[in-house]
Specification:
Blueprint (H helix, E strand, L loop, with lengths): L26 H17 L2 E6 L4 H9 L3 E3 L1 H10 L4 E5 L2 H10 L4 E3 L8 H4 L3 H10 L4 E5 L4 H6 L2 E3 L4 H10 L4 E4 L2 H11 L3 E3 L12 H10 L4 E4 L5 H4 L4 E2 L2 H10 L4 E5 L5 H7 L4 E4 L23 H10 L8 H21 L10
Parallel strand pairs: 1-2, 1-3, 3-4, 5-6, 5-7, 7-8, 9-10, 9-11, 11-12
Helix pairs in contact: 1-14, 3-4, 4-15, 8-9
The protein binds iron/sulfur cluster.
Length: about 350
């Protein structure tokens, strides 16, 4: 019997999420801020590109001003195609960096540069690069939730909407994969495609907190509900899903499935769009075990919550919080992102929800 050598997996750093601080505004302050932001955006030829996990205020403002609310794949596409000279990215750091990588000539601002992601933080570029060096025979595929430096080390960047198809494509070519940073999404992609994948051991603090046993009980209490699960969740939670997909795919399912009730295992910021595209339907948060248990985020990302109208107005006033990436890193990172965008365009993956709100 042939003995396979043991592969030493690097240990991802333990990530401590910041405390949740959500913006609280009176109606009159909110209205004043929105009017000021709109004026500044017009003056500065700026467009707002926001993620589904940001607040309802930010999402509404993006749509009202001709911007975009979407997943990270569509955010990248939209910012790239839009003629605005300034992109304001309301989301987390890797999204701002991706916008800058694709648009070096544009000014990219973010409401808060501390808004990060546990997956990005769990994959330091130096350690990751050393791990890649140990496995030169493998194609390096990284999730979009990584730093510019990690993308620069990768052969491919993928999003949750493109991961399965891209890995499938590589697997058919006989390639072995080195995957980072999300162990749960990597496990899901590995099981779905059958590809040979080495998985980095990062996790999303929001999705990791969903609990299968409690979800099973919730399903029994709501037998007509469809369960929608983002694949950054643990395998036992994914196993209970009716639909597994990216945020855009889950919103599409909420809109098109005949069910009136949905149990949703992803950040609860997505409910704003789900309610807009499927008004009258009922959306319930999948259980994270609640008070006193292990839930770190309770279905909302503390870094996404750092985006708010006050900070948005402030960066437009001051020009602070601009994203900068060195050209050697950018020019390497853009190849792996562009590869994904070209593949997604060819395969027509994850079309944007139109007329949704
Ligand atoms: S929800 Fe998870 S994956 Fe998304 S930004 Fe927050 S920590 Fe990262």
């Amino acid at each position: 019997m042939k003995i396979m050598p043991l592969i030493q997996m690097p240990k991802a750093p333990n990530i401590i999420a910041p405390p949740m601080v959500e913006e609280q505004l009176t109606d009159s302050v909110r209205a004043t801020l929105i009017a000021r932001i709109k004026q500044l955006m017009l003056q500065q030829n700026a467009v707002l590109v926001a993620h589904y996990y940001t607040s309802a205020d930010i999402q509404d403002l993006a749509e009202e001003t001709g911007g975009c609310v979407s997943d990270s794949l569509e955010m990248a596409r939209f910012g790239h195609a839009h003629a605005a000279r300034t992109l304001i990215v309301a989301g987390v750091k890797f999204m701002g960096e991706t916008a800058k990588i694709l648009n070096p000539e544009k000014r990219v601002l973010m409401p808060d540069l501390q808004a990060n992601c546990s997956l990005d933080l769990a994959c330091p570029a130096d350690e990751f690069s050393a791990f890649c060096d140990q496995h030169p025979e493998r194609v390096v595929v990284v999730y979009a939730n990584t730093s510019a430096a990690v993308k620069a080390r990768a052969d491919w960047v993928v999003t949750s909407g493109t991961a399965v198809k891209i890995v499938e494509h590589l697997h058919k070519q006989g390639k072995k994969i080195l995957w980072a940073p999300d162990k749960y999404l990597g496990d899901y992609v590995q099981k779905t495609t059958g590809a040979d994948m080495l998985l980095w051991q990062g996790a999303c603090v929001v999705h990791e907190a969903f609990k299968a046993e409690a979800l099973q009980k919730m399903k029994l209490a709501h037998p007509d509900a469809a369960v929608l699960v983002h694949p950054e969740s643990p395998a036992a939670v994914i196993a209970l899903a009716d639909v597994v997909g990216s945020t855009t795919q889950l919103i599409h399912a909420a809109q098109t499935l005949p069910n009136q009730t949905f149990i949703v295992a992803t950040d609860n910021g997505i409910f704003h769009k789900m309610q807009a595209v499927a008004s009258g339907k009922i959306f319930l948060e999948a259980p994270t075990a609640g008070t006193g248990a292990t839930c770190i985020s309770c279905a909302h990302c503390p870094w996404m919550a750092m985006n708010g109208l006050q900070k948005l107005a402030q960066v437009l006033e001051s020009g602070d919080n601009e994203i900068h990436i060195t050209e050697p890193v950018r020019s390497r990172a853009v190849r792996s992102i562009q590869r994904m965008l070209d593949f997604a365009a060819e395969q027509q993956i994850a079309p944007r929800m139109r007329g949704a709100a």
